[in-house]
Specification:
The complex is a heterodimer of chains A (about 475) and B (about 260). In chain A, about 50% of the residues lie in helices and about 10% in strands. The relative contact order of chain A is 0.13. In chain A, helix 3 (about 45-65) crosses helix 12 and helix 15 runs parallel beside helix 17 (about 380-395). By secondary structure, chain A is α/β, with parallel strands linked by helices. Chain A has 3 domains: about 5-305, 3-Layer(aba) Sandwich (Rossmann fold); about 315-395, no CATH class; about 410-475, no CATH class. With about 260 residues, chain B is α/β, with parallel strands linked by helices. Chain B is globular. Classes of the chains: A alpha/beta (about 475), B alpha/beta (about 260).
Amino acid sequence: MIHSTSNAFKANAHDGLANPTLQSALAKMKVGFPNRRSEAIARLPEFDALRDRSRDIKNHVLENLDWYLERFEARVREAGGLVHWARTPDEARAIILGICKRLDAKIVTKGKSMISEEIGLNGFLAANGIEPVETDLGEYIIQLRNETPSHIIAPAVHLTKAAIEADFRRVHTHLDAKRDLTEPATLVAEARGILRQRYFQADVGITGANFLIAETGSSVIVTNEGNGDLTQLLPKAHVVIASLEKIVPTLEDASTILRVLGRSATGQEMSVYTTFSTGPKREADLDGPREYHVVLLDNGRSALLGTEFQDILRCIRCGACMNHCPVYAAVGGHAYGWVYPGPMGAVLTPSLIGVENAKHLPNASTFCGKCESVCPMHIPLPKMMRHYRVREWRQNLTPRGARLGLGIWAWTAKRPGIYHALTSMAMRVLGWLGRRHGSFFNLPLAGGWTATREFPAPQGQTFQAQWARRQRAMGRT
Amino acid sequence: MPVADTIPRPRIGLFVTCLVDLFRPVVGFAAVKLLEESGCVVEVPALQTCCGQPAFNSGDIADAKAIAKQVIASFEGFDYVVAPSGSCGGMLKEHYPELLADEPDWALRAQHLAARTYELIAFLHDVRGMTKVEAAYADSVTYHDSCSGLRELGVKTQPRAMLRSVAGVAITELPGAETCCGFGGTFCVKYPEISDKMVGEKAADILKTGAGTLLAGDIGCLMNMAGKLKRLAMEEGARKIKVRHVAEVLAGMTEDAPPIGESS
């Protein structure tokens, strides 16, 4: 599994906040995605009904996952393909390497896959003498930069066009230095021209899967560039790498969820390409891979079944939660320190790598609830983050100062008499100290607040003290 | 006896909330005034402190439960429980039943409390049918939708509808009114840099509306936004904005206290 810097979230976030390129990219993203989503939804009155249906489909699958997985495997075999079961990232990588070696692969083209990121596939292939070539434009860009994706559907969303142009000029030195790259379309065309030859050189094509369909043994990918189709059709073998909760029972179910996926993700009714793959090339087919493999990764997911975290397995990776998250929009995806950023990452990351390795992620949320309100699968993200906070509290992972402060506060809050006496006194003092300015420029224990904000002074007497006096004056006790 | 007096007046247990109790008592008195005007009898149980949300959201379930039980026991005899906060109201209404789900006797009591609990403005408008108030406030105002009230309790149109009846008030909608201000309870002290970035953007949006007053229904969010707006005015010469809880304006009690973060 790839290394995590999630426990350095605060430092990562600090860097993100100070990065002008990132901030300028995020400023655009946080407006563009939500606007496009809400416009698309406004055009589909049955959107909420489709969300409910999609949630129900996935819940049903998760309750019967073993059955659907075995059915899927049987159908893949009938279609002439193979399913490989991988409990861990190591097993998944070994399976893929085995396929590549058997086919004597030197170059592997890749469609966009977060599971590939999760198992650190690119570095592993390169270390074994196989060149991985990312064919999704965003992935291609971050591969040039030796970075990881900062967003699950827009891997290079942390970059501006100017930054990408500079990278292309740095790397594509065989092209005319005076060429015009000011338009996004010219950048796309340049990447496309370079990738075109790589598709024909590749021996193996690896893609992810948005869905695995149990009834037909098909895998489904959605792309906007058509790169996935070239990746999987031209080489000798197509390897699908997917986590096991990607299963849906039927084609009909896949199309139901597809209707919420595109709209939630980019505001598109459908992605430009939705590709269904079933088995390898058949005799009468003109094109297609000779081999079709599906590597099914567990990596801790089956252990979530039956727990308070099962609902995260409904996630269809649309990215709506991060597109609408004010914390993500402030710090960017890399701050989260592992494969999955934003609200879904704040739940999935501790689920897969252990909450002790992702202590901040469930805490770095105001619980504003926007993520849950836009999630097409109705995943209760804030609630699950809170479940992780409970685990942290129980495992003594909560920072000591916070624990102590909360302990003192809770002790008094449970004793109303003492609480009212203490707070009444404290507010009188604080109110008196703040009477001239109305607020504090500096306040002990609230330095994080007062560094950039005034701290409003209390009025002086507490409501309870005033109310008690008023009641006495009115002859009530 | 006049007819009105024969209709039993509902008894309200006012859940003051800790922030109103400590920092902004005028909001409590505004709530009492509005509730009484809507025909209710208001009582304030002395055994209340806080709703327990800081413990609940920090993962300290034992303390959260103890405090929740204290609140439930104190408010059991009332027809309704009303809080001048969507956040605390949401805690009582949405989260107590969930928090106490594994203790059947308490779960039932929590559900009973939840069914009778309302956020102040939603209660006045939706339950008491109070669509107008007798108040005046001469300023242009903009309104921020606090997250819990908006998404847990559906508080959105009610404060705006009631504000429209206040003489002298002109409402300018706040772009991004539904975006979190970055307060988030303990979040603002645990992650101050991120919180500041969020409230900084919120403040910029507020300033752009041109409104003279910012209103909202939660003191936590209001203290955060008032603190940022005032610092921006002090250090960057930003326009001064008056910040108040919406109940102060609706109750016509803006003379009773200076705006949040200001001196009299």
